[in-house]
Specification:
Layout (H helix, E strand, L loop, with lengths): L8 H12 L13 H11 L9 H27 L2 E3 L5 E3 L2 H18 L10 H23 L1 H5 L1
Antiparallel strand pairs: 1-2
């Protein structure tokens, strides 16, 4: 299937249609925690809608769970502090630091799998253009939704 140029009129129309659609839903066979759901929309909006395949959505769910765990562990770390005193009275690094570091490493691996942090296969200008066009369309949609006067006419 031939792809339209990201700066074409057809791509602009497609981006507006995609921006008007609700966020991509979590596949029915994936259980996502409430905490991870807060990250889901941001992850799926990071790419143009047509870039998502079902297998990508499974990885996106894993990424959302990972980001939720990072946030949860970070909250605990802020409460406990990065340095703790053990039973012998010695100052030691909070083991939660390593947990967060391991989660961050996993997060980056999942992002690479989704081609969100590295080079995408195919023509990167095509992906970048489609993402930019759809992001602009979402911004226009948000502005229109916020403009009560415009909607009243």
């Amino acid at each position: 299937m031939k792809r339209n140029r990201s700066d074409s009129a057809a791509s602009a129309v497609k981006a507006m249609v995609n921006a008007a659609l609700p966020d991509i839903e979590v596949p029915s066979h994936i259980l996502l925690s409430d905490e991870a759901m807060r990250f889901w929309g941001g992850i799926t909006r990071a790419r143009a809608r047509e870039e998502w395949r079902e297998v990508d959505l499974v990885v996106a769910a894993q990424l959302a769970e990972c980001q939720a765990l990072i946030e949860q562990e970070s909250i605990e770390l802020r409460t406990e502090g990065t340095i703790q005193t053990n039973d012998r009275g010695t100052k030691v690094e909070n083991p939660r630091n390593r947990v967060i570091q391991n989660l961050a490493t996993r997060e980056m691996a999942l992002m690479r799998t989704l081609l969100m942090g590295g080079k995408a296969s195919g023509d990167p200008r095509s992906f970048a253009g489609a993402r930019k066009t759809e992001a602009s369309a979402r911004k226009v949609r948000a502005e229109l939704e916020d403009d009560d006067e415009l909607l009243a006419t």
